[in-house]
Write a structure and sequence with these properties.
metal ion binding, Isoprenoid_synthase_dom_sf, 307 residues, Farnesyl Diphosphate Synthase
Length: 307
Amino acid sequence: MTGTSPSDFAKRLDKTADDTEALLGRLLADDILPDEIARPKRLMDAMRYSSLNGGKRLRPFLVVESAAVFGVPREAALLAGAALECIHCYSLIHDDLPAMDNSDLRRGRPTLHKKTDDATAILAGDGLLTLAFDIITRDEIHRDANVRLLLTRALARCAGIGGMVGGQILDLAGEGRFGGNEPIDVARIQQMKTGALLRYGCIAGALLGQATQKEYQALDDYGRALGEAFQIADDLLDVEGDAAALGKPSGQDAAMGKTTFVTQLGIEGAKQRVRDLLARADSAVSIFGDRAAVLQAAARFVAERKN
């Protein structure tokens, strides 16, 4: 992993986080767009509360850096990244609800339903989900309408039935929420619930850059490895992490009786799996040479993060 020092990587990550924050602030402004009738204040305040002033913005960062491999204009990649971040933020709002994970804290602050109420939280999540598809179809993302179509379809599939939403219901089923004793496939749940949006961050860059099939496959393979490493690191943090650093209570998985990579592999086995995934991610993008240095650094960041 040559060419990107930890300090350089941190600066790039922070810069994308700042740029994404500013862009989301504009996208979530009170100004009414054509074909909109109104932007209700309570709804907009709730959407901003759960989208601004927080998070590493890893998913937009992956879009920006995977797109940079192909020389895609940063402004276009940031816009696609903002659409992805809207999906991510909506999912956190809904995951925190009493009917789902029943969380009181997110990023060190009260979760949205605690700050407001369940109905406002549900509708704020719905608003962010819908806004994402407004953003991803905008002309500014790419002059070729077919590229915008491919980006939109991929986002829907990564976020929906066969991706994040499907993974969430499998996760709840694994907790015994719906009765019965369904088999738990932790790897499948991870690929869908957590991994799908991270993978989208990588393939979105390939789509924006109109990559060859080989190049697309390299970023797809990288995204899958990074997504699994992210989830295992998350499982390890739930066992070993500090609640103050996490910004939410630790030990929630054990409290809810969840089957995780850690419960299946053990702590040392999970750490070894992360090392294997790092090697796989590194190898996948090696075809890009020095252009892959930031992506390789991103995989290491995901594996070694503390929150």
